[in-house]
Amino acid sequence: GQSDCLIVGSCELPSQKNDRHFIGDVSHDLFKVPGATYGMDLTSMNVQRGRDLGLKPYHQFLKHFSNAEFEDLRNTSQDSVDFLEDIYDSPADIDAYVGIITENPIPGLDIGPTAAEIIAMQFHGTKFGDSFYFTHTNGRYPFTSDQIRSIEAFSLAQIICLTTNMVKVRQYPLQLPGATKNPLISCSSVPTMNMNP
């Protein structure tokens, strides 16, 4: 189906370099009606959503996660600093979303340190706030240690093979293709999950 094409594209093509600039499809033409000059702007929508929800300004996130002040600027390029100074009257006015997307990415990641902290905090809350999370062994119906090992060994390649019509998939779908480091594997050779106790 069409979702298979999206998955293949996501697994086979590198993503755009991460920076504060968004492609026109997202910043001008989102949900554009045929014949219209413009669509919507996802970045503006995210900023407005943050304001509507009463999200604290960026400098407060900086202070909370790294005890840094905005003036420190160690995680922001000079180009982004100049951009922020043109847009905002004061560092205290910078919207959280805008500040976060202007941070330099952590080496090896596509996000800066503040976004990384927020995502880690959200994942921690999801995992430890859910009494049924699969690794918890003190719940009412916990998985056995063998079942937990089986779940942990289950790969994204296996999930893609089981939920799509794809015949082949990269062994490591989130890594870029490489001749030998990330070969295409046949979905018929991908084992299914064993949940027997």
From TrEMBL:
- Which keywords annotate this record? Glycoprotein, Oxidoreductase, Peroxidase, Secreted
Pfam families recorded for this chain? An_peroxidase (PF03098)
Localization recorded for this chain is:
Secreted
Q: Which GO terms describe its cellular component?
A: extracellular region
**GO MF assignments:** heme binding; peroxidase activity
Q: Name one GO biological process term.
A: response to oxidative stress
Give the PANTHER family listed for this entry. CHORION PEROXIDASE, OXIDASE/PEROXIDASE
Q: What is this protein called?
A: Peroxidase
Q: Which organism is it from?
A: Parasteatoda tepidariorum
